[in-house]
Design goal:
Blueprint (H helix, E strand, L loop, with lengths): L45 H20 L3 E2 L2 E2 L1 E4 L4 E4 L2 E3 L4 H22 L2 H6 L1 H17 L2 H9 L4 H26 L5 H9 L5 H21 L1 H7 L2 H4 L10 E4 L1 H4 L11 H4 L9 H4 L20 H13 L6 E4 L1 H6 L3 H6 L4 H22 L4 E7 L6 E2 L5 E11 L5 E8 L5 E2 L4 E4 L4 E10 L7 E11 L6 E10 L6
Antiparallel strand pairs: 1-2, 3-4, 4-5, 6-7, 8-10, 9-10, 10-14, 11-13, 11-15, 12-14, 15-16
Helix pairs in contact: 1-4, 2-17, 4-6, 4-8, 6-8
Length: 488
């Protein structure tokens, strides 16, 4: 596969600009190219259809899920003030942080696996930067026109028509961006309550800040910065090379078939002209959202969106040439002329096997832990103010503080029993009423008859059991203290 010679970070090395003749010793050479605005051309095809399918799926989930009701509440709500995180029928608490850890580890390993197998699928199809850039570009095309019309409009003087088109475009962008910010905050503040607050201009300072911040970030990243985020801000573009190998599917230009490139008529014989299949139309460059020429080889700016594949296939169809001059392939497949079967066989290799094993282990562990999760949490804390005391009838008493957390959305009654010492019993109320998804802390007194326990610290267990026959049960260890017997 043809590639530019990489620099220290894997980026193609740009040719140095010659110093003009006669320039003095103080002549400087620019190290960075001034940003050139990119006008991606609209493209249709198989991969464009997949990109828009992902746009619709992700945005229907993002914008719609916040409005979905569940058990008289929002289906997905991260209530930071109450420290409760509702995901459909499950209530998570800060103590369930392990599940978030497993989710993040699963996402990371999945990203590594997909990248090792098929390159930057996440960047090209599902990354929020890609998704919102596609949406903002669609709005821009609908208002200002396709590539040629937008280029001409920007190059022309400021007229009433140009001002009106620009104002309309940015108005729609801003409205969509702040609706996105409103929806984002709606996952942390019930979105219906938030909507009423926005309409009455009574949102709190943090809600106002995050709506504006997230909306401004969406507007700036998708409307203005676009490919700059992918090329310079996103770290994924930099470390992706560590996950690529010669059997990773990437978007590749077949130099053997395409070169030498050159323009020709539709009825011309490329063999007679000594030309390859590439007609040098530069459609692949015009449709690229990052403005690269894929014919120069794999570059870190390529986000794997496959727009160049759709554009090139359309040109091949018009010329009557076979498709696939630009296609998903691997370095080994291009050099060895492997067919699809040969490419698939090379998917199974040590790197992917390790990723699959790790991903399977983490997913199985997470699902098992979630299925075995007991929706009841109990913490036992000794009363530091009264370690042990002797009460009526010579019994010894210890006082504890029980923190009970009902992690279900059903009110429940729990019975508290203890064991571990002969004659040990609960001297206070052994029944506790718990509200749905609520916590309660209360003192509980334990006693033992005189002479039934040796002095010092003895291991005991608290048993908290639901009274409704649901089988919810938690057993927590604690220590019972009693005075040591005096030695004669």
């Amino acid at each position: 596969m043809a590639e530019n010679k990489p620099g220290a970070q894997g980026a193609p090395v740009l040719p140095l600009r010659p110093v003009p003749a006669g320039a003095g010793p103080e002549a400087e050479q620019a190290l960075f190219e001034v940003r050139r605005k990119i006008y991606p051309r609209a493209v249709h095809g198989w991969f464009a259809g997949w990109r828009w399918a992902l746009v619709w799926i992700t945005q229907v989930v993002f914008y719609g899920l916040a409005w979905l009701p569940w058990n008289d509440r929002q289906a997905v709500l991260f209530d930071l003030a109450a420290r409760k995180f509702y995901i459909f029928g499950i209530v998570f608490w800060p103590q369930d942080f392990i599940y978030l850890t497993l989710l993040l580890v699963t996402c990371a390993i999945s990203l590594f696996l997909f990248t090792a197998v098929a390159g930057r699928l996440w960047c090209g199809y599902a990354c929020p930067q890609t998704v919102y850039t596609e949406i903002f570009l669609w709005i821009e095309r609908k208002i200002e026109g396709d590539r040629g019309a937008r280029t001409k409009l920007d190059a022309g003087p400021l007229t009433a028509r140009k001002f009106g088109l620009k104002a309309a475009k940015h108005s729609v962008w801003v409205a969509l961006a702040f609706w996105t910010g409103f929806t984002f905050v709606g996952y942390f503040t019930p979105i219906r309550e938030l909507g009423a607050e926005v309409l009455s201009l009574s949102t709190g300072p943090w809600e106002t800040f995050w709506i504006c911040f997230y909306g401004f970030a969406t507007y700036g990243n998708a409307g203005w910065m676009r490919e700059q985020v992918c090329k310079y801000m996103c770290p994924y573009a930099r470390f992706q090379g560590a996950m690529f190998d010669r059997d990773t599917l990437v978007i590749a230009y077949d130099t053997t078939r395409g070169e030498p490139r050159g323009a020709r008529g539709k009825k011309a014989d490329p063999v007679a002209l000594g030309l390859g299949a590439c007609v040098d139309c530069e459609i692949c460059v015009q449709v690229c959202p990052t403005g690269i020429d894929i014919r120069n080889g794999l570059q870190y700016e390529c986000i794997g969106c496959a727009a160049c594949i759709d554009g090139c296939d359309q040109v091949m169809d018009k010329m009557g040439y076979p498709r696939g001059l630009i296609r998903y392939s691997t370095e080994n497949a291009i050099e060895g002329h492997l067919d699809l079967g040969g490419i698939v066989k090379r998917f199974v290799r040590p790197r992917t096997l390790v990723y699959i094993a790790l991903l399977t282990t983490v997913v199985v562990a997470g699902v098992t832990a979630l299925m075995l999760r007991v929706p009841l949490k109990v913490d036992v804390i000794r009363d530091r103010g009264a370690i042990v005391r002797e009460v009526e009838n010579g019994e010894f008493e210890n006082v504890y503080r029980l923190q009970v957390m009902n992690a279900t959305e059903v009110p429940r009654r729990y019975r508290i029993t203890v064991d571990g010492l002969q004659g040990l019993y609960v001297a206070s109320d052994a029944l506790v009423e718990m509200p749905a998804a609520g916590t309660r802390a209360f003192p509980i007194r334990l006693r033992v008859p005189p002479g039934s326990v040796a002095g010092g610290s003895q291991k005991i267990w608290f048993n908290v059991t639901a009274e409704d026959g649901s089988g919810i049960h938690v057993r927590e260890k604690a220590a019972f203290l009693s005075p040591k017997k005096e030695q004669n």
